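Dear Dr. V.,

Thank you for agreeing to look over these. As mentioned in my earlier message, I'm a first-year student in the group and I'm still getting used to reading structure tokens, so any feedback on how I've presented them would be very welcome. I ran two proteins. I've put each sequence directly above its structure. The first is here:
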Amino acid sequence: MPRFDRIRVGLIGPTTLRLLLQVFGTLCVIAGIIGVFVPLWPTTIFMILALWAFARSSPRLHNWLLTHRRFGPPLQAWERHGAIPAWAKLLAVVSLATSLAIVAFAVHSHLVVGIVAAFFAILILYILTRPNAAPGNKI
């Protein structure tokens, strides 16, 4: 973890940077929790972003998220091994396909639909090439 007492980014000091990362992480956790209840709203990506922000700003919040009863195990697999459970891959691919269908129906520009489809294809390729579980574990 970087030492914030030696980092200065432009006019933002280490304390301000740490606070901004904690606020960003907290907003990501809130967005992730919303995703548990709202269909087609992603949860996992927000929790991964929160984990990243907390790893750089607050060991306490980072540990809390990693040991959370519901979110902890998949986040541990992601952080340690880059693993995404098979059920999460399936959910992500179905959500992206559904979102693309909505975009294709709602937007009448072939260019926009093509750009969204290309971006989603890259995301799907990335998701599907991640391991399903940590070595030696079943997730």
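The second protein is here, in the same arrangement:
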Amino acid sequence: MGYLNNSTVTVDAILTKRGRELLARGRDEFKITQFALADDEVDYDLYNPDHPLGTAFYGAAIENMPIVEALADETQMMKYKLVTLPKGTARIPVVSVARSSIELQANQSTIITPSTINFSGGNRRFGYTCILSDSDVCDIRATKSGLSGGVSVPQFIGDSEAAQTITVSGIEFEITAKEHLDSDKTATLLVIGNETGGRQSISITVRKVQTPTVGLLAQ
């Protein structure tokens, strides 16, 4: 969802499949009960405390910036969510995973548990969303779930990748490698904080299956 311009309150929204179903039913079934705000398009470097016209114009350049319209690819929207932090907070929440890369053998599994630093209790309610770029490389499932119904699940929209992408939400996740006989395979895992925003990207490599070779017996 995005503002059509910065002078009215009219918004341009793209509904999810579920949202369209509820809207089509009528009978007041389509109700917006929760929403999130973000400032992805704002360049705060444009704030100018030295503006010659005074304090009312310090943020003029920011206020006149074009506002992005709604985009169907949610992985490219709301990267920088607005959150209410305790007074005196000096650092923004950061999504953290213990490792930036994972290497697995065929059928091997590993567990990842994202955390949020600089913000006590961050993302403990609705957890995290993990988007695996290629289901041909490995599988992913949530081993511990957060609360459901309070967060939309981003879906990657692409020409060829959409059918291979896996998206799950939870608190803890298990990644299981698939077998590859011809070559090593790689994928990317994007971990997003459902409440605070923020994200971390993890590279995944699955090694090909090593098949033993048997030499020919001398005749």
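From my reading of the second output: The longest strand covers residues 185-193. The mean pLDDT is 80. Does that match how you would interpret it?

Kind regards,
E.
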